Amino acid sequence: MTAPLTPPHQPSSHGPWQTPPRWGGPGGPAGSGGSHDGGLPVSQEEPDRRADLRRAAVVALAVTVVGIGLGLLWLWLAPRVPLVSDSTAVYLHDSEGEEAIGADGTFALLGLAFGAVSAALVFLLHRRGGIALVVGLALGGLLGSVLAWRLGVWLGPDQDVVAHARAVGKGVVFDAPLQLRAKGALLAWPLAAMAVHLGLTALFGPRDPEPQWGTPPGWGAEGPVPGAGAGPAVPPAPPAGPDAGH
Predict the structure, then answer these.
(1) Lowest pLDDT segment from 120-124, 125-129, 141-145
(2) pLDDT digits 0-9 by tens, 184-210
(3) What is the mean pLDDT of residues 50-61?
(4) Backbone phi, then psi, for 175, in 5-degree steps?
(5) Is the pTM of this model over 0.70?
């Protein structure tokens, strides 16, 4: 009797239904050069996240500083509200004027323009999307709007209306303090920036590459290769001689 070539308690390492021990593992075809167990590529999330946060911080700071330009433009373009005093009280010189509403509208329109331009510049510089970059752009737009608002009020006409009326005298028309009554105009810049940046990213941004997975031995791009996974042929047992039964 001839002994079996493969002990029954040890499966053959060349069986067609077994995965080679090195496939997908460290040093295997799919994971050589640095991979986690299971054949997945080494994660770059931590370095990428830090780079995204740095870019977002720089964008937020730069956009906030640009708010100075918005404040100066608002101070220059916003219509003035004329006031007049009769030595006892201060009145609107034109009670039917819409200058106060015009100041809010001017700020909102400038915020929309600054948001669109800042989003386009950020996209042209980075050519990528990402939640961190969008959040940095929106945060910078909000901070820039607040800076522009406070700067325009500070550089505008005197906030002390009574003292200003006394200084100019009775019956003299003077400008009211520059005010932003509709605080929702502060959101015009960040909302426009987010919308424009997301639109540009969707239209012209790079597409994410498809994940690369390791291919097991014996498999091609379209499926298993016939005969590639089969083990070596087992040689037939030698014929029994006349002394086989002894």
Answers:
(1) 125-129
(2) 999 999 999 999 999 988 888 666 566
(3) 90
(4) -85, 140
(5) no
- As a dihedral over the C-alpha atoms of residue 124, residue 126, residue 127, residue 129, rounded to 10 degrees, the angle is -120
| Residue 70: both structure tokens together | 């918005």
Question: 211: exposed, middle or buried (C-beta count within 10 Å: 0-12, 13-18, 19+)?
Answer: exposed
